[in-house]
Design goal:
Helices cover 57% and strands 10% of the residues. By secondary structure, the chain is of the alpha+beta class. Helix 3 runs antiparallel to helix 4, helix 3 crosses helix 7 and helix 5 packs across helix 6 (180-187).
């Protein structure tokens, strides 16, 4: 009898150990599965998607343009890049924008808006950025922005040109196969000067203090500092453009 009791006790103990072992394995498996789900959720939340599936926060990822009216839903949403040809960050932003344009939503109308403020570095003309703004609008007026826009950037960052002297600008434009003298004439036209003044007014309205920065619908302001990176700037722009387009 005593022997049978010991057998019963050993059997019960073994059964308990098997049950405990199974429960322990099941618990550990559930914990691993839970951690995996959490990790996937974090990765999904961090991945910016076209159309803005990620929720961006006002005051953190973007700000509002002070005094601007909220745009109404429409077929087109204007996304402006405030830039300067002499800006290194703008130069590095160019290939990123180029790729983004291939996949951006059809309702986004992307435009450049040259920045202007007085140069204070010795040896540089104070109105240097005004001249560079005229480069942009003259190229646009001639419908040659696609050809000349990268040429102006490369001239400043690869060839160390300042692009302030008429002769230098004329020679550079002529080297692309275009009429350099005609380009200078367009630069000094009333239409281009008017566009430069409009660009300056927008800059003041948006309270631009650096480049590159993005303005969406004339209402939302995005910078690399708020968005976190240049790629993320465009992801935020996608999100806000969709928000405007959908009337949210």
């Amino acid at each position: 009898m005593i022997f049978d009791k010991y057998l019963m006790l050993d059997s019960a103990k073994a059964t308990y150990q098997r049950v405990y072992s199974f429960a322990d394995v099941a618990l550990r498996f559930a914990a691993v599965a839970l951690l995996s789900c959490l990790a996937l959720s974090v990765l999904a939340a961090d991945k910016p998607a076209k159309g803005g599936s990620k929720n961006y926060v006002e005051g953190k990822h973007y700000t509002l343009v002070r005094g601007a009216s909220k745009p109404t839903a429409g077929t087109k949403v204007v996304v402006e890049e405030v830039f300067w040809y002499g800006c290194g960050h703008c130069y590095s932003f160019e290939p990123i924008i180029k790729e983004w344009k291939k996949t951006k939503a059809d309702y986004i109308d992307f435009r450049g808006s040259p920045a202007m403020w007085e140069q204070r570095r010795p040896g540089l003309p104070k109105d240097m950025m005004w001249t560079h703004a005229k480069l942009y609008y003259a190229a646009s007026a001639m419908q040659e922005l696609g050809k000349l826009h990268p040429v102006f950037f490369d001239a400043m960052h690869k060839q160390n040109k300042r692009l302030v002297k008429i002769e230098e600008i004329e020679q550079l434009v002529s080297s692309t196969g275009l009429d350099g003298k005609n380009f200078i004439g367009v630069m000094e036209s009333f239409a281009v000067r008017s566009q430069v003044e409009q660009s300056l007014k927008r800059q003041r309205k948006y309270r631009i203090t650096g480049t590159p920065e993005l303005i969406v619908g004339g209402y939302y302001h995005i910078s690399g500092r708020t968005a976190g990176s240049q790629k993320e700037m465009l992801a935020v722009a996608d999100y806000l453009a969709k928000k405007i387009h959908d009337g949210k």
